[in-house]
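LAB NOTEBOOK - FOLDING QUEUE
OPERATOR: T.R.
BATCH SIZE: 2
PURPOSE: Compare the predicted structure-token outputs for two unrelated chains run back to back under identical settings.
PRIORITY: normal
REVIEWER: second-year student, initials M.K.

ITEM 1
FIELD SEQUENCE / FIELD STRUCTURE:
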Amino acid sequence: MKTIYILSEDKPARTAIAAVLKKKDYLVYECAAPDEFRANVDHVPPDLLLLEIRPEDARGYDLVWDIRTDCRTGRFPIIVVAPEASEEDIMTAFENGADDFIMDPYASRELLTRVKIRLNAGKPAVPQVLQLGAIRLNTGTHEVFADEKKVYLTAREHRLLLLFMQNPGIVLTREEMTHRICGKADTDKARGRSVDMLVCTLRRKLGAQGGRIKTVRAAGYLMRADGEAPCREA
């Protein structure tokens, strides 16, 4: 029997989802808060998580990232259920580690079909470890190390570093970086400055290795390829 957790602050929503799943003989655990979910997971590991995010829950999509990067909870499928989600919301959910996204309202058959597909998908893909000089990034656990020291990054900082490491020595424009990280084109100066701030924070967290990220005037940024020593920007 497969074990499915439902994490939602909305009790009627939890109850409705649970009723659908129990008809198919799934073992269902309902949790109203992340702490309750983590406490239960320590005793009964899930096969899948259904995470409901309400429009008023500003931190909901960050929670996807928190669960995915937690060593206790990061190795099972996550399906996000949300009403009134924008294209940016959906992209953010996937970028933060969700495996699927269901728009509410939905048909019970759709929910069951998506759950079945994720449960039958097999084991997660083998994590890929990217390394550039003394920077190491594990795409499975989302762990980052610089000079053998663990670096703690936010979801956007992690996506920015991954983008750099997948494109070493290539100039990335602010517009491209904003689109890839935030899901929107860089159409105003404010968003351009937000990218600059993100790069600045990433450099600082990477310590000496942050010098690999070079500013290309009037163009954007690049990360020095392996073999090139990091150097601090003036």
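ITEM 2
FIELD SEQUENCE / FIELD STRUCTURE:
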Amino acid sequence: MCKAIEDMREEARNEGIEQGIERGARETLLRNVRSLMESVGWSKQEALDMLKVPEPEQAGIIAML
């Protein structure tokens, strides 16, 4: 039983780490898009294109801006 609990804890920890990495990457991308929009005067779409954000992800990013 202790092994099962340890495995569950490890799995939860790994999921938390993955979520943290994804959140950090998303926040960095949002910051970069905003920076390009402000400093270069690009539209949201232009900034996303220049950062090579895949098209399926762009709508979600635009909604967060």
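REVIEWER COMMENT (ITEM 2): The CA atoms of residues 36 and 47 lie 6 Å apart.
FOLLOW-UP: none requested
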